[in-house]
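Section 4.2 – Deliverable D4.2 (structural model, holo form)

The reporting period included a commitment to supply a predicted holo structure for the target in complex with adenosine-5'-diphosphate. Inputs used:
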Amino acid sequence: MAILEVKNLTKIYGNDENKVVALDHVSFTIEKGEFIAIVGSSGSGKSTLLHLIGGVDKPTSGEVIVNGQNVYKKNENELAIFRRREVGLIYQFYNLIPILTVEENMTLPVLLDNKQVNQEKLDELLRILDLKSREKHLPRELSGGQQQRVSIGRALMNAPSLVLADEPTGNLDSKNSKEIIDLLKLTQKRYKQTLIMITHDENIAMQADRIIVIEDGKIKKDEVLRK
Ligand code: ADP
Ligand code: ADP
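Output (structure tokens):
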């Protein structure tokens, strides 16, 4: 079953005198459980695409359908619920809340959703992400690799169907990058998730099931590496 359908997606920033076509009629389908790498030069439209899939921006035209839900037919309230439950976002610079501990950062999306924290899931993620001894620490007391592991935990706590990562290793050295990619692959299998990752690193892209190349807001190449 298709977990994601992107149909004729177009995003234009700015006004008539000063307009940027960031995405130009992009269409593709992603099956449940796939690991997709999105590559392309800086400014080609990758982040715009990821944000539109995650419901954090609005397209100029076209549709995004996640798990059968037409994302931009939702009202603001439904969209907020969609963002909390259906997608987990991971950023290059972690975007952790500095005054909250590791545990609090990870459980925040669940609490914002007025749900009980699943203590077993939290413990399991802390163990998998090797953060058990860091539970009560603040982000500034952690290394970059540890902070990114917290942000993976936060993205996964609500069991989203789509995990969206925007250059998750862009700020890490090669050892930490490998660790983060291995963890994303491991949790993707374990929780049967679909992983869409923007990366500049060819070695990382080659580990994906499929590579989508974006250039000037269009799909330049869409290649399946493994089934
Ligand atoms: P990438 O992630 O591939 O680097 P982006 O999606 O960030 O590309 O940007 C695509 C194009 O849209 C670029 O020309 C960028 O400058 C422009 N752009 C992105 N966000 C905005 C914005 N909020 N306002 C205006 N232009 C933007
Ligand atoms: P990346 O290449 O990692 O996407 P960018 O520097 O392109 O990072 O974008 C960082 C942020 O700035 C994004 O939220 C994007 O929407 C915004 N942005 C990018 N280009 C522009 C622009 N020309 N005008 C306004 N905002 C922009």
